[in-house]
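Q: Convert this sequence to structure tokens.
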Amino acid sequence: MTHVPVLQKEVIQYLNPKRNENFIDATLGGGGHTLEILRLTKPNGKVLGIDADPGQIENIKQKVSHLKTKKRLILENDSYINLEDIIQKYDFKPIHGILFDLGMSSWHLEESGRGFSFQKDEPLNMRYDNQEGKLTAEYLINRWTEKDIRTVLKEYGDERFSIRIAKEIVNSRKNKRIETTFQLIEIIKRAVPVWYQKKRINFATKTFQALRIIVNDEFENIKKGLEQAVKSLKKGGRMVIISFHSSEDRIVKLFLREKAKQGLIKIETKKPIVPCLEEIKTNNRSRSAKLRAATLLK
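A:
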């Protein structure tokens, strides 16, 4: 599997990494952006890479094991909601730029085995950190009320058939616990019209998206992470955020507007930057990506 970083050219343009500068990749993923930043900040620039998934951290360790740049890469298995604590832990300053790539990585879909993809029959986990004892998609669809499931699908997935899908989930779990992705897909299929099943985007996409977002508390975490990023950057430091969901982009847009009104940042992107047609053809998962950028003023 080849990791294809989304909007890489634009990320580099707005982060503008220079020799010996330090950056944070708050959502390390497959490491594509980080490796390019390391290349551009040599010989002494450093990158602090953060990822909640231990699997992703191990992947990057293997990827850089033979590279000289590994000495300039600090890896931390944690969530960016703890950004300030992580920075303090490594005394990582000054910080010239921070990147948030809020999308789910190809690795999660294709190799994690946690039920992120509706194309494989896997357990319905959907947790990035894979920690036991925390909310999973399986627990949610088997234990939450029909009303709560409907709300999740509507608010976090913009699913137009949220009422029908929630009702079918609750009816189905009376007979057998819903434990796998394929079970859930069959339930969704029974709930939605035939024409909806034939649309270009898979009919299960929005349900899976909604479950993943709520299980990982993604929307609330974005606000926490961005707040800490603004506090941590040096004056003139750059911040780039890539989102993949309309609600994510709205959170980012409103956050940047608020900080700009307070005179803390300058917004560098009047409108979100989106992938060109060529990138979308090469990497279909980039199609919903939106990039916003800002510079810290004080």
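The two ends are 42 Å apart (CA to CA).
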